[in-house]
Amino acid sequence: MGTERDKGAEQGTVHYSGTEGGWGSVRGIVETALRERPKPAALDALRRQNKPGGFMCVSCAWTKPKHPHTFEFCENGAKATLWELTSRRCTPEFFAEHTVTELKGWKDYDLEQTGRLTHPMRYDHATDKYVPCSWNEAFDAIGRELKAIDPKSAIFYSSGRASLETSYMYALFARLYGHNNLPDSSNMCHETTSVALKDVTGSPVGTCILSDFDLCDAIFFFGQNPGTNSPRLLHPLQEAVKRGCKIVTFNPIREKGLEVFKNPQSPKEMLTPAATPISCLYLQVKTGGDIAAITGMMKHVFAKEAERWAAEKIHVLDVDFIEQHTDGFDALKAHVDGTSWEQIEQESGLVRADIEAAADVYIEAKRSIAMYGMGLTQHVHGSDNIKQLVNLFLLKGNIGRDGAGISPVRGHSNVQGQRTVGISEKPELVPLDRLAEQYGFEPPRDEGRTTVHVCEGIQSGEVKAFIGLGGNFLRAIPEQERMEAAWTTLRLTVQIATKLNRSHLINGQVAYLLPCLGRSEEDMQVTGAQAVTMEDSLSCIHGSIGRATPASPDLKSEPAIVAGLAKATLPPNPKVRWDDWVADYGLVRDAIEETYPEQFHDFNKRVFTPGGFYRGNSARERVWKTKSGKADFTLPKKLNSWGTEDKDGRWRLMTLRSNDQFNTTIYGYSDRLRGIEGTRDVLLMNPDDIAAAGLKQGQIVGLASDADDGMDRQVGGLTVTPFLLPRGCIGGYYPEMNPLVPLSWHDEESKTPAGKSVPVRIVV
Ligand SMILES: Nc1nc2c(c(=O)[nH]1)N[C@H]1C(S)=C(S)[C@@H](COP(=O)(O)OP(=O)(O)OC[C@H]3O[C@@H](n4cnc5c(=O)[nH]c(N)nc54)[C@H](O)[C@@H]3O)O[C@H]1N2
Ligand SMILES: Nc1nc2c(c(=O)[nH]1)N[C@H]1C(S)=C(S)[C@@H](COP(=O)(O)OP(=O)(O)OC[C@H]3O[C@@H](n4cnc5c(=O)[nH]c(N)nc54)[C@H](O)[C@@H]3O)O[C@H]1N2
Ligand SMILES: [Mo]
Questions:
Q1: Is the pLDDT score of 375 beyond 90?
Q2: Which of 61, 256, 660, 668 could link 673 by a cystine bridge, Cβ 3.0 to 4.6 Å?
Q3: Does one domain contain both 313 and 376?
Q4: Which of 25-34, 305-314, 550-559 has the lowest mean pLDDT?
């Protein structure tokens, strides 16, 4: 592996030479603190972050341990908190000074740097400005609009941050009103997981719990970047490596956090050169090449099975598990046997010996864990990526026992929980009969809209109203320019947010911007300060109490806003006690418990269980809620997850997150761990590809869509930057690259946009 790294240095590709963690991450926090100028309360908030009785970080969804570190936060968690507790304010005076058209010319970074929104605002078309309004005026007007349209033409979107309490109320509001159009950010993220894992294991979420990480012998990492996106996960990884667990990574980019880690919370490690090497094997698979790589691993597993059985009568496979618990083994074996190493090398971009070495780690390990992120989910055949990984794990019975399992690393801090309590466009995932009984109404039974269907419905004119509970929908979706043009035909747009972003500048005929409390702020209601709850990536539920003084006295909490909208829209129903719920969120938890008694029994008593309470997972118990009643081996449709064919001049573009952003929130311009500083307008390319394409380092180029639909999509002004990537794969930043992603370019099964291998041409 060393040789490849040296090659990078020789070729002069940019790469950070330090470790993940260490002093660099301390510097990252300090820079954010200086920029946001937080009050002392913000620093106090950091001390209580991710602890029982404290508040749960608004950054990633990684679990919060029972015995937290003194500072159970990371560089990016600290940035997220400081971002929320900034002393900057985006006031009615600010809006009086700037037209919305003018603000459309601002960068994402500059919009959010205006600070926290302080006041409910209505968009005034005559002056092209936001003007202040009262909460009652906003609720009444929105209720009036919603009552005037067919409920099925309204969309209730949510970004994955809102608490379980808010999410439950929001989903119930949608159903009482009359639709299942409840897409959330998961529809652009891990929906591939929710669909594919559910299909083959019967459970839509990961099967691991934290203690599995103390027991496993090997961890296989596919397309997830913990150094940037879930840094607290580096602690259990570092501990696992120290006790001899092997980590094997498949990623087109040599991500720093998966190479070496220095614990910034360990004084000893900070003062010595010691850093833990993380991956023992780092395979730079081609974008979209994971299906082939895993096929190769399985080929080697089958070869070793035959060899060991012949020589020693010992199985490599878990034959009892396969026999008792799975379906479809023979077809899978035939498919793997029928695939040649030549095809595997060609499609994965890896050499046979490296894939065999990875498979040997898998064979030797008694207990293995698979972790993955957007590198598997955001592909046209993303579902096949995940099912292929499940195939590999079923071969050795690595699902449903201690120390083993599949562990997708989720994104937003409550994105998994929102689905758990009813935010879903898929009615079959929601206990509609129970809701019907509990609230005395007939819930809609038809399928709601996914994110992609929402966009199609806006383009066709079928969608009339959009409510966004957080997020930055228009910046996060594909086909950005066409969608912005279509958006203005909407009758009603409502955005509930903490900070100004681009989605607030593209407005329907009636448009409101409603500011809410952040999770770190005190949420005072008539019965006192309220706690809320979240579910992490490992299905543990945690309570969270904000203590910071709210950014403005005119803010409302998310539950209060949802209740305000619902009351203004729906006829009164004595069984739905909006006012009581807002007064005491414990009553919402009682309602959740009534709807989901198995998972949420004794909810209020368990809210502050240290380490959270586990809501259970059927696949972990080897109860397979699938059509076959077993865990299913399945066959991939292709050997790669790329939705088109290779051809001359067509590149596979990965849209990436830097270390200085949270999704569309850009904290700054330093992608420290990749050594890219000062700009996000870059085109990352292998140096040999730069030469072969006749380009030069530093040259400014553009990208154009090379999708087979022939539509024109362009992004310009990108600096050619040498970077150690597999040949044929190029990289750029999300969300700047989003205008290049066709709306039709999504995982076939789950409709998750395929942002990790977008077909493009380079335009000089
Ligand atoms: N600081 C910070 N934290 C975050 C976020 C953030 O933006 N900033 N976002 C949050 C959210 S919502 C999410 S979903 C997660 C996202 O976290 P991740 O799942 O880590 O998502 P990405 O950073 O988009 O990309 C993941 C990795 O996939 C690799 N990759 C790309 N294509 C392929 C491929 O074909 N195969 C393989 N094997 N790898 C590939 C990329 O090189 C990259 O390292 O993080 C969450 N946490
Ligand atoms: N090309 C490409 N596109 C992608 C991705 C990619 O990798 N590549 N990743 C996809 C993924 S994984 C995701 S999850 C989506 C993200 O899509 P979203 O979740 O829609 O976007 P965010 O950038 O997380 O939303 C940021 C905004 O949320 C608001 N906000 C922050 N905190 C709060 C709060 O507590 N309450 C409320 N009400 N609002 C708040 C702020 O106003 C902020 O501007 O993007 C997707 N789009
Ligand atoms: Mo995400």
A1: yes
A2: 256
A3: yes
A4: 25-34
What residues are paired with 761 via a beta bridge? 704
HSE-CB at 447 with a 13 A cutoff on CA atoms is 5
Residue 510 CB neighbour total at 10 angstroms: 18
CA of 243 from ligand 2 middle (Å) equals 37
* CATH number, domain with residue 572: 3.40.50.740
Give me Rg for the CA atoms of the chain. 25
Q: Is residue 383 part of a domain?
A: yes
Burial class of residue 201 (count of CB atoms within 10 Å of its CB; 0-12, 13-18, 19+): buried
Give the span between the Cα atoms of 582 and 457, in whole angstroms. Answer: 33
Q: Are residues 306 and 384 in the same domain?
A: yes
pLDDT at position 7 over 80:
no
Q: Could you report the per-residue pLDDT of 639-697, keeping only the tens digit for each? A: 999 999 999 999 999 999 999 999 999 999 999 889 999 999 999 999 999 999 999 99
Tokens (6 digits) for 613: 């309470």
The set of residues, in sequence order, having a beta carbon less than 8 Å from that of 402 and lying 6+ positions away, is 211, 212, 215, 367
User: In the prediction, which pLDDT does 588 show?
Assistant: 98
Task: Return the sign of the alpha-carbon dihedral for residues 199, 202, 204, 208.
Answer: negative
Domain check: are 211 and 347 in the same one? yes
Average pLDDT, the chain: 92
Are both 398 and 471 inside the same structural domain? no
Cα–Cα–Cα angle for 732, 473, 469, nearest 5°?
140
CA of 742 to the centre of ligand 2 (A): 19
User: Which range has the worst mean pLDDT, 40-49, 509-518, 628-637?
Assistant: 40-49
Give residue 26's pLDDT: 66
Given the structure tokens 């067509």, which residue do they identify? Answer: 650
Question: Phi then psi for 755, rounded to 5 degrees?
Answer: -75, 0
Instruction: Give the nearest ligand 2 atom to 495 CA.
Output: 38
Q: How confident is the model at residue 9 (pLDDT cuts 50, 70, 90)?
A: very low
Angle between helices 558-569 and 164-177 (to 10 degrees): 10
The count of structural domains within the chain is 4
Ligand 3 centroid–CA 189 distance in Å is 4
| Token pair belonging to 332 | 């899978």
193 lines ligand 1 (CB under 6 A): no
- Ligand 2 centre distance from Cα of residue 498 (Å): 12
Same structural domain for residues 99 and 172? yes
CB 369 within 8 A of CB 219: yes
Tell me how far the alpha carbon of residue 308 lies from the centroid of ligand 1, in angstroms.
38
Where does the pLDDT of residue 316 fall: very low under 50, low under 70, confident under 90, or very high at 90 and above? very high
Give me the helix-helix angle, 451-460 and 480-487, nearest 10°: 50
Report the atom number in ligand 1 closest to the C-alpha of 756.
32
Range of lowest pLDDT (11-25, 435-449, 601-615): 11-25
Task: Show the ligand 2 pocket: residues with CB < 6 angstroms.
Answer: 112, 159, 161, 185, 188-189, 374, 378, 411-412, 469-473, 476, 496-499, 501, 516, 518-519, 558, 655, 663-665, 734, 737-738, 741, 755
Cβ of residue 224 lying under 6 Å from some atom of ligand 1: yes
Distance CA 116, CA 80 (A): 13
Residue 678, in any domain of the structure: yes
Q: Whose CA is nearest to atom 35 of ligand 2?
A: 518
E strands, 530-674, where? 532-535, 540-544, 613-614, 631-632, 651-656, 661-662, 665-666, 670-671
Provide the CA 744 distance to its chain's centre, in angstroms: 20
What domain range includes position 660?
651-763
Residue 406 lies in a domain: yes
pLDDT of 100 higher than 80: yes
Distance 411 CA to ligand 1 centre (A): 9
Question: For the domain that residue 678 is a member of, what is the CATH number?
Answer: 2.40.40.20
498 SS3 class: coil
Q: Is it true that the peptide bond before 735 is cis, omega within 30 degrees of 0?
A: yes
* Helix or strand (DSSP H, E) at 300: helix 290-312
For atom 37 of ligand 2, the residue with the nearest CA is: 470
